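ok so for the tutorial part 2 we go from a plain amino acid sequence to predicted structure tokens. step 1 is just haveing the sequence, like this:
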Amino acid sequence: MKDFLDDQKKIILSILLVLLVFIIKVFYDNFYQVPNQEIEDTSFETLELFDKNDDNALAINTALDEEIYVHVSGRVKNPGLVKLSSDARVIDAINKAGGMYDDADIDSINLAKKLEDEEKIYVAKIGEESGTGESSSKSKTVNINRADLESLQNLPGIGPKMAQKIIDYRQDKSFKNIEDIMQVPGIGEKKFEEIKDYISAN
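step 2 — the prediction. this is what the tokens look like for a chain of 202 residues:
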């Protein structure tokens, strides 16, 4: 009889041990496996966010590639306003305007120069003369003390806004020399180098 009871105890203990192992397994699955899954999901979301950032970077690059408008006149086949990408150069604007005529003075302009919005490009005719009888590409300068808004826009890289800044500046004091134009906000040494051959202050 005692042996029988001992056997029952062993069976009961074995069952309890199995149940305990089962409970521990369930507890482990509920409290450890789910968080691991959540971590994996978070990693996936992070990957998706990284991809979205790539898309945003692409959108930013696209936004930087904005369109600009420049006015092309003179010895081009289709003078007028042309639309170009923001990284375009003078040659691109001339080609967009139909190209130059055979009598165009190619030395009067810098074909490699990068363009800015609202800029005006004038292509002179070979031998074109100003009032002094000299080639306009060398002697036809714009007097920065007297030129009106439209005349100032004939300068390389000078649009309506910058031309107005020049006029506003000289209302307080005149330009004693062409270097003084660098006192105008927005005109630095680089811009001065582009326009110095086309301006005068006499």
